[in-house]
Specification:
Largest sheet: 5 strands, antiparallel
Distance between the termini: 49 Å
Helix content: 25-40%
Shape: globular
Number of helices: 9
Strand order of the largest sheet: 5-4-3-6-7
Number of strands: 9
CATH architecture of the largest domain: 2-Layer Sandwich
Order of helices and strands: HHHHHEHEEEEHEEEEHH
Structural class: alpha+beta
DNA sequence: GCATCAGTATTACGGAGAAT
DNA sequence: ATTCTCCGTAATACTGATGC
């Protein structure tokens, strides 16, 4: 969704008294979830094509030529692509491109670098999630300072304890962030993060809010050292931590939170509603 | 035998539309 | 008006495989 389109839609939504969209990314994601295609059509979504599936079958040997072929076929491609003969050229391109980022008319978070020679793709291969012949360079994320209001532990279905940060709400990269993960007790104590601190926060990959560290110059004298939880926040049973391991666990097998989290997991894994879980399976999960 | 890589599980977030 | 659910995506921990 271009910034022009995004602003146009929001102007209209203001006129109609509707809440504004927060950012183009989520507005586009929401548009794709619309069941009414006439609304989707009005939103003017757009796309560049980057990958020509049948390139080798069409006797195209490399990525650069496949983009040119897509253009011949009248598909929209990104006019900014460039061939780089080595990594130094790639780096120079990134340096040159970054200042132009805000003149593009649409938001980007980085640049994709691809191997040009298509016949190498199979040899280079894939991990479970990603091709190994392409990688994204991500621009540094926006860092914002806000106040850490509280730290509280939560317990998941396995009993693992995760610590969460409650933050003074702050706008980062187009969303209001109120909370962020602090992972585990070691993460917090290693950085000596304390409640009441001003902390640096960013969104990893422009999505996941993350506390980076506290701001040393703004530490208050009265700020007390943070203490890790000793008992489960749900059932108050004593937490266990295996020597040499990082995570604390609630080992109470009938901890209510563990059971409900377990049910949630079971349901989402099997794409069912809570109501659809049979009594037998609930018993099994309970055990 | 150690270091690194890869894969999986878990947990996490906010915004969006849909459902209640 | 509120709650539910989906979506995309990252960090961390741990385990097993692979490479040197």
């Amino acid at each position: 969704m271009s910034l022009e389109e995004f602003n146009k839609i929001n102007d209209e939504r203001i006129k109609l008294g509707e809440p504004e969209f927060a950012n183009p990314r989520n507005a586009a994601a929401g548009t794709l979830r619309q069941l009414d295609s006439t609304i989707v059509a009005k939103r003017n979504l757009n796309a560049f094509l980057y990958y020509y599936v049948n390139a080798l079958g069409d006797e195209i040997q490399n990525q650069y030529d496949s983009l040119q072929r897509l253009e011949q076929l009248k598909f929209k491609t990104n006019p900014e692509y460039r061939y780089c003969s080595n990594i130094a050229a790639v780096w120079a391109y990134i340096q040159e491109y970054e200042p132009k980022r805000h003149q593009l008319g649409y938001e980007i978070d980085g640049i994709v670098i691809k191997v040009n020679n298509l016949s190498l793709y199979n040899r280079i291969g894939y991990t479970a999630k990603n091709p190994k012949w392409a990688i994204a360079y991500k621009f540094p994320a926006e860092v914002v300072v806000t106040k850490l209001l509280n730290i509280f532990p939560s317990v998941g279905r396995t009993g693992r304890i995760t610590y969460n940060a409650v933050l003074e709400p702050v706008r980062i990269a187009g969303t209001i962030v109120r909370a962020a993960t602090l992972h585990n007790a070691d993460f917090i104590t290693e950085r000596d993060i304390r409640i009441g601190d001003d902390v640096q926060v960013k969104k990893a990959g422009d999505i996941i809010p993350e506390v980076i560290n506290y701001v040393v110059e703004r530490r208050q004298q009265k700020a007390k050292k943070w203490q890790e939880a000793t008992h489960c926040p749900e059932c108050q049973s004593l937490l266990e931590r295996v020597t040499g391991e990082v995570d604390q666990y609630c080992i109470n097998s009938v901890c209510p939170k563990k059971i409900t989290r377990g049910l949630e997991h079971y349901c989402s894994r099997n794409a069912m509603n809570i109501e659809g879980v049979s009594e037998k399976n609930i018993e099994r999960l309970y055990k």
